[in-house]
Specification:
Structural class of chain A: alpha/beta
Distance between the termini of chain B: 18 Å
Strand content of chain B: 5-15%
Order of helices and strands of chain B: HHEHHEHEEEHHEHEH
Number of domains of chain A: 2
CATH topology of chain B: Rossmann fold
Order of helices and strands of chain A: EHEHHEHEHHEHEHEEEEHEEHEHEHH
Helix content of chain A: 40-55%
Shape of chain B: globular
Shape of chain A: globular
Strand order of the largest sheet of chain A: 3-2-4-5-7-6-12
Number of strands of chain B: 7
Strand content of chain A: 15-25%
Number of strands of chain A: 14
Radius of gyration of chain A: 18 Å
Largest sheet of chain A: 7 strands, mixed
Largest interface: A-B, 29 and 35 residues
Radius of gyration of chain B: 17 Å
Oligomer: heterodimer
CATH superfamily of the largest domain in chain A: Thiamin diphosphate (ThDP)-binding fold, Pyr/PP domains
CATH architecture of chain B: 3-Layer(aba) Sandwich
Number of helices of chain A: 13
Distance between the termini of chain A: 34 Å
CATH class of chain B: Alpha Beta
Strand order of the largest sheet of chain B: 1-2-3-7-6
CATH topology of the largest domain in chain A: Rossmann fold
Structural class of chain B: alpha/beta
Chain lengths: ~300, ~280
């Protein structure tokens, strides 16, 4: 049984770990205990600044810090980092292409009990439209940690999306993160399941079931939503001719949208999308709600079978 | 301030105002009213106060300036051009396709611009970030920002005021360009943000009040601000929207419209006459 760790925990620990090695500041908006930047706050109290419940101000403050050559992280829930502060991220950070790293936790439907107001299923769509913004959605704790270091080393704005709920660890310690590169976790010839975030482990499990039933499904982890790994997607679009995308995000504008944009222009093939279908979330336990919205190994297996038969 | 120096600054400010009009007239677009109201403050900052070098606009220890009321870019560009950051001839390309002089300040393409602004309320927060970074990195530079009185209707301005006081950013000095007018009319008619002094004090800032067009008062205020420790300072600068052009003064219609040829000629004639009087 795989170890269960929330990517927000990995994020907080990574900030504290890499704080030893790299010079950066961390801002939060009264959610340090939840975003887990509290780990960094404890380790480096003089490098942590709470901005209070004022996310717009926080993003523009981060931009101002970055103009001085100082790397800085700004953290909040995805709803407030990408939603509330969208315009500050766009105009203060994106337009001048400043070196701000946005650590957005509690992304997606697995926020669970808090319900629709806090279940942000739109953040990747919003962030992806900002020119020059890198958008990262790690699949597990190992890749989340590695993504934090990659973001520190990257010059320019980065949006990282992390989850609240514990998820299985799928990568081992020799995992290397490269911005813009997808990863083939399993090869296949009948269809390709392109997944991101918490759906990657579900897609892997689904592919095992499919294999037993004679369906050969490739599984790709797209951890960088933007810039997306076009070459890899086009290779598998050509090879399997069928793509199933899976994401804990609206089917509009996120991974599914990005994959459709990519393949439709250069190697058209059928693309089916699993994600939150143009509706708001509801309260419930994280995985209970996720399953109700189609994010489960069973649903991925089912949809993959339908697509394979087409 | 020595009379001679004051007169020099008045001349520079008059030329800055001519530059503002040249920009807006040639673009047939832009915001002359608030540019003219802030011209003396910006002239003082760039010609007298700030540690800056037009030959090395990105030098590490420079004082920073953020024009939070970014739509008054014509004033900032004119001051920067007259200070030598780029040729004054370029002012006539303002807002034109292919020019680096974008409608609102763009730090990526314009020498001397420290922060991209334009969307109101965002600039003062960025100035807070610069001041915080200076504190953390033990740098001595100071950060200046100008906000509009209409701009203070944005909630983020007050978030920034809270932040700056909380982190005791005494290396930050904000100027409120209090010309009393916004696009839709007098600020007190549109949605009254006053009284400013009591609000700023309640937010934990030092508050100074001056006439925005008197260089002695401007100088005294910036000197005082520099010596006030433990809290940021805001200078409430009582200004005249459209200052220096008779038919634009105190008229909100000139917030965001450009003069026609005859109007432009009258404005140039008025400012030229004023310059001639200064000798």
């Amino acid at each position: 049984m795989a170890e269960m760790i929330a990517t927000r925990d990995a994020y907080g620990k990574a900030l504290a770990e890499f704080g030893e090695k790299y010079d950066f500041l961390v801002l939060d908006a009264d959610l340090a205990a939840a975003t887990k930047t509290v780990n960094f706050k404890k380790a480096f109290p003089d490098r942590f600044f709470d901005c209070g419940i004022a996310e717009g101000n926080m993003m523009s403050v981060a931009a101002g810090i970055a103009t001085t050559g100082q790397t800085v992280f700004a953290s909040s829930f995805a709803m407030f980092a990408a939603g509330r502060a969208f315009e500050q991220v766009r105009n203060s950070i994106g337009y001048p292409h400043l070196n701000v790293k946005i650590g957005a936790t509690h992304a997606g439907i697995t926020v669970g009990e808090d319900g629709a107001t806090h279940q942000c299923n739109e953040d990747m769509a919003l962030m992806r439209t900002i020119p020059g913004m890198t958008v990262i959605c790690p699949a597990d704790a190992v890749s989340a940690r590695a993504a934090v270091e990659a973001a520190i080393l990257h010059k320019g704005p980065v949006y990282m999306r992390f989850g609240r709920a514990p998820m299985p660890v799928i990568y081992d310690s020799d995992y290397r993160f490269e911005i813009g590169k997808g990863r083939v976790l399993k090869d296949g010839k009948d269809l390709t399941i392109v997944a991101t975030g918490i759906t990657v482990h579900m897609a892997l499990s689904a592919s095992e079931t499919l294999e037993k039933e004679g369906i050969s499904a490739a599984v790709i982890d797209i951890a960088t939503i933007k810039p997306i790994d076009k070459d890899l997607l086009l290779t598998y679009a050509a090879k399997t001719g069928k793509i199933l995308t899976c994401e804990e995000h609206s089917i509009i504008g996120g991974l599914g949208g990005a994959v459709c944009e990519t393949v439709s222009e250069q190697c058209p093939c059928i693309v089916k999308r699993i994600g939150i279908e143009d509706r708001f979330g509801v309260s419930g336990k994280a995985m209970e709600v996720a399953a109700a919205f189609g994010l489960s190994t069973e649903n991925i297996t089912e949809k993959a079978k339908e697509l394979a038969r087409k | 301030m020595l009379e001679k120096r004051k007169q020099e600054l008045q001349k520079i400010a008059a030329n800055v105002r001519l530059g503002i009009l040249e920009e807006v007239y040639n673009a047939a677009s832009g915001h002359p009213g608030g540019s003219l109201s802030v011209a003396d403050i910006l002239t003082y900052l760039y010609f007298e106060k700030m540690n800056i070098d037009p030959k090395d606009p990105k030098k590490d220890d420079r004082d920073r300036f953020v024009l939070s009321k970014g739509h008054t870019s014509p004033a900032l560009y004119s001051v920067l051009a007259h200070r030598g950051f780029f040729p004054t001839e370029d002012l006539k390309t303002f807002r034109k396709y292919g020019s680096y002089l974008q409608g609102h300040p763009d730090m990526k393409g314009i020498p001397g611009v420290d922060m991209s602004t334009g969307s109101l309320g965002l600039g003062i927060s960025a100035a807070c970030g610069m001041a915080l970074s200076a504190k953390y990195n033990k740098k001595n530079y100071r950060v200046y920002t100008v906000i509009g009185d209409g701009e203070s209707e944005e909630g983020q301005v007050w978030e920034a005021f809270m932040f700056a006081a909380h982190y005791k950013l005494d290396n930050l000095c904000a100027v409120l360009d209090f010309n009393g007018l916004q696009i839709d009319g007098p600020i007190t008619d549109v949605i009254d943000p006053t009284p400013f002094d009591e609000k700023f004090k309640a937010f934990g800032w030092n508050v100074l009040e001056i006439n925005a067009h008197d260089f002695d008062e401007i100088e005294n205020a910036f000197r005082t601000a520099e010596n006030l420790k433990g809290a940021p300072t805001v200078i409430i600068a009582h200004s005249v929207k459209g200052k220096g052009v008779s038919y634009m003064e105190n008229k909100c219609e000139w917030h965001g419209s450009a003069p026609k040829k005859e109007q432009y000629d009258i404005a140039v004639a008025e400012l030229s006459e004023y310059l001639a009087k200064l000798g």
